[in-house]
Design a protein that fits this description.
single chain, mainly beta, Pectate Lyase C-like, two-stranded antiparallel ribbon, 2 helices, disordered C terminus
Length: 436
């Protein structure tokens, strides 16, 4: 029997590698599209299917306008848009399937990339939600390994990006203009969002029962809420949240931005996860009505599962009507830490925030907290002209103020603490030199 030399083994390995690369090349393909007159739904779908049948590939949209109805993605297929390419939706709801412009279910390794535009044309469905909402622009169910990068969504007839039971996704440098919700995730995990610019009519980010979501370096503008979120392990850093909204809220016909952050856990979704381990850091907020809202007892879509540990650090919020409105669960699971931050009332404004989404708020104070385990404020300033206390704290285990600066312009105690087991204050500063 002949001996197999090391050189022979190396030759075999190299040959196997070469053949694998050749076969892989044959399994993938690239299909280049050019604009045509009329609906191109079948042409685009054929290109997607052709790539999928060959093991995956790229469907390239060259510059121009492509009119289409609903498209169904396939695993290992990328939609690539050249600069100047516009995928424009039909204005007839009958041209869509799966209530989506671009739809995917049970897929892996999918991507939508490039500098093109996806235009939902505000397609109306008279039998849709609220009597007019049409297809979502991108709707993904039970998909993984998702890449969304570089493109713009405008005039989405419903949510711009709707993800349910999805995982391992990156959303990078995506812009959204108009429409309804921006990125709406439910029962999703491992999403990384960066460098995006969302300017929506409804919530920019929304969803419940999510896990491990990170949002960094994003611009957020809306006529509803910046983040209406339920998530375990949620990080937001280096973001700018500004109102009023550039795009009108289509139902309520208004432009004011309701809140920067709102708890979201709707009972009808049967949520399982507690929302907690939030780290919100280095965020600028301007001209937003409420900074953070949490009402577990009766808040709209907030009563499924409670919030737990929330941390804000290096926040600068100017032009707000209220900083915190918190009504926690009776089990006192809620913990809040705020550090190195400032919150200033909107100069010249009248307080109009007696209600939030139809539910009466505790008071017109800048900071309200009821039913909590711990609230810890360190190196935080609050500013609002008021004869009444602007911090009202009730029914909790521990409330700590350390290096807190409160400016009211009045010679009266600027805070009220009631039914709190442990209350500590240190290095407080009041604008008129009250006895501390």
């Amino acid at each position: 029997m002949k001996k197999v030399t090391i050189q022979s083994c190396l030759i075999i390995v190299i040959l196997v590698s070469v053949f694998e690369n050749v076969f892989a090349a044959k399994r993938t393909s690239s299909v280049s599209l050019n604009p045509q007159t009329g609906l191109m739904t079948k042409t685009i779908q054929h290109a997607v299917d052709s790539c999928a049948n060959r093991g995956g590939g790229v469907v390239l949209f060259q510059a121009g306008t492509y009119l289409s109805g609903g498209i169904e993605l396939k695993s290992k297929v990328t939609l690539q848009f050249e600069k100047g390419a516009i995928l424009q939706g039909s204005d007839k709801y009958a041209d869509y399937k799966n209530d989506a412009f671009i739809f995917g279910k049970d897929l892996s390794d999918i991507a939508i990339q490039g500098e093109g535009i996806i235009d939902g044309v505000d397609c109306i469905n008279k039998q849709g939600e609220e009597g007019f909402r049409g297809p979502h622009c991108i709707r993904l169910i039970n998909c993984k390994k998702i890449s969304l990068e570089g493109f713009t969504i405008k005039n989405s007839a419903n949510w711009a990006i709707n993800c349910r039971y999805c995982s391992n996704a990156t959303v990078d440098k995506v812009s959204i203009r108009g429409g309804h919700d921006g990125l709406h995730t439910r029962f999703c995990n491992n999403f990384a969002v960066s460098g995006c610019d969302f300017r929506t009519g409804d919530d920019c980010f929304a969803g419940n029962d999510n896990r491990d979501i990170t949002v960094t370096d994003c611009k957020i503008n809306t006529s509803c809420n910046g983040f209406r979120m339920g998530c375990l392990n949620f990080t937001v850093k280096h973001c700018k949240i500004c109102g009023p909204g550039e795009s009108i809220h289509k139902i309520q016909k208004r432009n004011n931005m309701l809140a920067a952050f709102v708890h979201f856990s709707p009972k009808d979704e049967n949520p399982k996860l507690l929302s907690g381990n939030w780290i919100i850091e280095d965020v600028l907020v301007e001209n937003v009505d409420q900074f953070y809202v949490y009402n577990y007892l009766e808040g709209l879509w907030q009563t499924g599962q409670p919030a737990t540990n929330i941390q804000f650090k290096n926040i600068k919020a100017n032009g707000i009507l209220a900083a915190f409105n918190i009504i926690g669960d009776l089990g006192l699971k809620f913990n809040l830490k705020v550090e190195d931050s400032s919150f200033a009332f909107r100069v010249g404004a009248d307080y109009l925030g007696d209600k939030f989404e139809g539910v009466k708020l505790n008071s017109s104070a800048l900071f309200n907290a009821v039913n909590f385990d711990q609230v810890n404020l360190r190196n935080v300033s609050f500013s609002k002209k008021s004869k009444e206390p602007i911090l009202i704290i009730k029914s909790g285990n521990s409330f700590v103020m350390n290096q807190v600066n409160i400016n009211t312009g009045e010679n009266s105690l600027p805070y009220s603490v009631d039914k709190v087991k442990k209350f500590q204050k240190k290095n407080l500063k009041f604008n008129v030199g009250l006895n501390q």
